[in-house]
């Protein structure tokens, strides 16, 4: 069977960020783009710098280009800084919050949990990763799914994020549940991105 981590490792090196825990050691050993000329590559234009930042943001939330464009268009209509509004909207996606809570190890695993129907919001099954969670919404693993191995690992803290759980979440891993207390602040969101460059990319 093919090593499924390899594409994520290559993408991590190309974007300059570790996208999965398994990619960390490979990225640290070779912190430059893949390929024969990886060490010598340089960003030599403003366009390339903005393009890379947009790709980095897409990868961290595992979005298609169309999904990110739509999120940007909605954020551009919000009062205040468009870049911060964009990050907040993306962070309130159901799959992103499942990841932040420690119920999943990666954004890819979080998305799979949602699409396979293991997650409910306010007592109702939601299978759309893009579902926008609102303050005071309660997210739980469905009763029928709690005995699955992945969720047993999560219950014991096996997927808990490094450092503190984001302050905008109240998490009870033993109950496989969490609540969004309020909208995130940009500084609290653990995403590596200069969102202003993303705004400039789409506004060009």
What does this structure look like?
The protein contains 9 helices and 5 strands. The chain starts with a helix and ends with a helix. It is 44% helix and 8% strand. The protein is globular, with a radius of gyration of 18 Å. It has 2 domains: 5-90 and 192-203, Ribosomal protein S4/S9, N-terminal domain (Ribosomal Protein S4 Delta 41, Chain A, domain 1); 93-182, RNA-binding S4 domain (Structural Genomics Hypothetical 15.5 Kd Protein In mrcA-pckA Intergenic Region, Chain A), CATH 3.10.290. With 204 residues, it is α+β, with helices and mostly antiparallel strands. The model is unreliable at 1-5 (pLDDT under 50).
Beta fraction of the residues?
5-15%
Corresponding CATH superfamily of the largest domain: Ribosomal protein S4/S9, N-terminal domain
In CATH, what is the class of the largest domain? Mainly Alpha
Total of DSSP H or I helical runs spanning 4+ residues:
9
Q: So, CATH architecture of the largest domain?
A: Orthogonal Bundle
What share of the residues lie within helices? 40-55%
Please name the CATH topology of the largest domain: Ribosomal Protein S4 Delta 41, Chain A, domain 1
Give the CA-CA distance, first to last residue: 43 Å
* Main sheet record: 5 strands, antiparallel
Major sheet: arrangement of strands: 2-1-3-5-4
Structural class: alpha+beta
Question: How many domains, in number, for the residues?
Answer: 2
Order of H and E elements: HHHHHHHEEEHEEH
Task: Give the low-confidence spans.
Answer: 1-5
Instruction: Kindly state the number of beta strands.
Output: 5
Return the average pLDDT rounded to an integer. Answer: 88
